[in-house]
C-alpha cells in the first residue's frame, strides 16, 4: 500500500519573520557578457561539484515572448555566475560542461523553454516547486518555501521588472544572484522530506516528465483567450476580436513589446462590441487613446471594416473547436450517466489526494478525470482504466494510486 503522510498545517503568517538574505556569500559577481568570460564561467561550473542551481529572468509584460534576459547559476566550488544571454546567446558549451549534472530549478516549466532557446538543456532535474506540491505545502513560491524550510527571507521587489533593460542595476543583479544562493540547500531539505514521506520515487517520475515533455504546440485560436471575450455577444463581433487580436500580435512581435502594451484586451473587446465606423468613434474608446494604440488607428479600422465585409461562413463559431468533452454544466442534460461518473470520479480523486496530502490536480489532471468520465473504456476494470490514464500522460505512480479506485467509482456510478 502506498504511504500516507501526516496532514500539514497551513503555513502561518504570524510567526516571527526570518532574517532577510541581503548579500551573496562571495559578493556580487560581474555579469558574464563576452566569449572569454563565458569560457571562464563554463570551466568554473564544469569543475564544480554537486547539483547546479539555475534560474532565468524574463521580461514578461514588457517584451514579446518569453526569452531569457539573465541566467543565474550556482554550484559548489564555482560560486554564483550571472550570464547575459543577449550578449552570450549560445550556452551549448555550458550544457556540455554540465552533462549528467542535476539542475535545480523552481517551477521548471516556466524556465525550461527560455533555457532551451539559449541551448542550456538539462539532462537531470529537481524542481523545488513541484516537490513542494507533492509534499502538500499550501504555498510553494520560492520565497515562501525558503522562509519556511530554511528560515531566511528572499527579497522579491524586483520580480516583475523589465529585465531587458541594459545595463541592469546592481540591486537587480543582487536580487537575481540571491535567487540561486540557497536553492540547492532547499533542494536537499525537500529531497529528505520526499524520502521520509515515501514520495521520492513519485517526484523523480514527475521531474523526468517535466524534463522530457515535448514542446507545446501553438494554441488553436489563441485570440479566444482574450480577457473579457465572454461579453462579446455575436459572431461578427467575435470576428472583430479575432482580427484585432492578430493585428495587435503582429505589431507586438515586430516591435518586440508585450501585446498588452500595444493595446489592452479590454480595448479589443469594447471595439469589437461597438464595431465603430470611423476613427473618431474608435478613439472615443479610452484605451485607444494611449500612445502606441493611437499610432495604429488606421490598422484597427481596417480590421473592423474587414469584418463588416465577411460572409457568414467566414465568421467564427461562438464556441471554438475542441476534441474534449462539452462543458461540465451541460452534462446533466446531455448525459446523466456521464455526470454521475464524473461526480463519483472527482470524489474518489479528492479522497486519495487528501490521504496522500497533495493537491488533487497533482494527483491527476482534472481534464483527464473529465475525459475518463465522459468516454470511459468499454471495460472499466483496473487494467483498462490504467491504460486510459497512461494514454493521457499519467505517470506510473499516479496510475498505481488511482486506477483501481477509479475503476470501482465508474462501476458504482453505472449502477446509480
Automatic annotation (TrEMBL):
In residue numbers, the region (Disordered) covers: 1-36, 309-336
Keyword Hydrolase present in the record's keywords: the answer is yes
Provide ranges: composition bias, Basic and acidic residues: 1-10, 17-28
User: Quick one: a GO biological-process term for this protein?
Assistant: nucleobase-containing compound metabolic process
Which UniProt keyword terms apply here?
Answer: Exonuclease, Hydrolase, Nuclease
Q: Which Pfam families match?
A: DNA_pol_A_exo1, DNA_pol_A_exoN, HRDC
State the superkingdom.
Bacteria
The membrane-spanning stretches of this chain are: none
GO MF:
3'-5' exonuclease activity; nucleic acid binding; nucleotide binding
In this protein, which residues make up the domain named HRDC? Answer: 234-314
Name listed for the protein in its UniProt record? 3'-5' exonuclease
Q: From which organism does this entry originate? A: Nocardiopsis kunsanensis
Q: What lineage is on file?
A: Bacteria, Bacillati, Actinomycetota, Actinomycetes, Streptosporangiales
